[in-house]
Amino acid sequence: MTKEKKYGVRALMIAAMFAVGGAVVPMQSAQAAVNAAAAQAIYKANACASCHSATQKLIGPAYADIAAKYKNDPGAGARLEKVVKNGGSGVWGPIPMPSHPGMSDADIRTVVTWILAGAPAK
Ligand code: HEC
């Protein structure tokens, strides 16, 4: 193989890698845009952690269980955003989920998106 041919192949491979990366990255951000660090800061600041944990049922269901329950429900995000804002009850047991009228819609969306992604540590 000549030097030129080698470089040609390498350039093609690099171009292909960029093409794949370019196709994957916008798809992820459109679907989920999970910001684990921001979500965890928000959920600590709003005392969600006093009733929820990522993996264990406390007073409220574990975030992992919430993610599993709504895994195949494309409307879950919008519905759960309303539950966090206005409160909810009767889905997991007798204890109601309190409302959070003071939280911004953007913060609620960040937390709910993260919960539905299984509440990853990062
Ligand atoms: C006082 C305890 C408490 C606090 C604080 C709390 N939750 Fe809950 N949460 C619950 C309980 C209890 C449920 C189950 C309600 C039910 O059965 O419908 C629940 C349910 C949920 C659900 C699932 C709702 C559904 O309909 O499936 C989500 C999502 C959720 N909480 C997110 C949050 C977030 C985010 C915060 C903080 C902003 C928060 N919770 C704060 C107790 C709490």
From TrEMBL:
Chain ranges of the Cytochrome c domain: 34-119
PROSITE patterns: CYTC (PS51007)
Keywords: Electron transport, Heme, Iron, Metal-binding, Signal, Transport
GO molecular function, one term: heme binding
Signal peptide: 1-32
Pfam families: Cytochrom_C
Positions annotated to bind heme c: 48, 52, 97
Post-translational modification: Binds 1 heme c group covalently per subunit.
Record protein name field: Cytochrome c domain-containing protein
